[in-house]
Amino acid sequence: MRSWRTLLARTTATLAAAITVASMGALAAPGAAHADASVVGGTRATLGEFPWMVRLSMGCGGALYSSTLVLTAAHCVSSTGTNTSITATLGVVDLNSTSKITRKSNYVYRAPGYTGSGKDWAFIRLASPVTGVATLPIAKTTAYDTGTFTIAGWGAATEGGAQQRYLLKATVPFVSDTTCNSSSMYNGEIIASNEICAGYTAGGTDTCQGDSGGPMFRRDSANAWVQVGIVSWGDGCARPNKPGVYTQVSYFAATIAAAATTLGG
Ligand code: ARG
Fold this sequence. Notes:
Elements (H helix, E strand, L loop, with lengths): L1 H22 L19 E2 L8 E4 L3 E5 L4 E4 L8 E2 L4 E4 L10 E10 L11 E5 L21 E6 L14 E8 L1 H4 L14 E4 L16 E5 L5 E9 L10 E5 H14 L3
Antiparallel strand pairs: 1-10, 2-3, 2-6, 3-4, 4-8, 5-7, 6-7, 7-8, 9-10, 9-12, 10-11, 11-14, 12-13, 13-14
The structure holds arginine.
GO molecular function: serine-type endopeptidase activity
Keywords: Disulfide bond, Hydrolase, Protease, Serine protease, Signal
Pfam family, one: Trypsin
C-alpha cells in the first residue's frame, strides 16, 4: 500500500515541479487572493524570518546547510554526481523579487541506499558560496524530535493547487510514531526509526506538493532554530488523520555531517 500511494504523491510532486517552472511568471500579483493561504493553512513569512529557506528549480524546497550546501529530499533529485542543471533561489520571500540570490548547482549527493522509501535526504552543492545568509543547523540528537514545529515553503496552498510566489509558513504539532502508524492514520507505513510525523488530527495545516525537501524546524534550548525534519510525503495535503511525514534528521545527522565534509563543507 505504501508504495503506490507514495508513488502517487511523488508523481504529483514531479508534475507540480514542471508546472512551477511553467507558471511562475503568471502567479498572483502582490495583494491578490491567496495572500494568507499556503503551505496549507499557513501565512506569509516575512523577509529574513527564515533566511536559510531555499527554493529549488525542480519545484522543491531546501535549507541552506552551509555556504555551498543545500539540504533537500532525495526524492527531489535524480542520482549522485555532477549536476549543473538546478537553480537555487534564496534570500527572498518573493520569488519574483529583483533582490533574490540565485546559484547554479555543480553536484548532487543523494542519500546512499535511497530506493524511494525512507532515507529521503540529499545535498545540492552550489557552484559558488552564498555569503551573508544564515544557515540552519541540523538536530544532532532526538531531543528536539517533539513539540511544535514550523514548516515553510513555496509549495501548493491547497491539495492540487498552484505553487506559490510568496514563502508561506505554519506550525504543526508532533505526532508520535505509534499514533502515526495506527490504523486511523498510516496503518504501519511509517518507518518509525527514520521518519517523523507532524500535523493536526483534524487536518487543515500541512506541507504539500512543492514543499518537499524543505525543512521542518523548531527552537532549541538556546532559542536557536534547529532542523528536525525534511518534507517527504503524505496522503494528500492537510487531510484529517493524515499528518505530514518528514525525514527524521536526527537519525541521519552523523551521516549528513560526514557527507557535508566529503562534499567540501
Ligand atoms: N512529496 C511532496 C513534494 O514532493 C511533499 C508532500 C508533503 N505532503 C504532505 N501532505 N505533507 O513536494
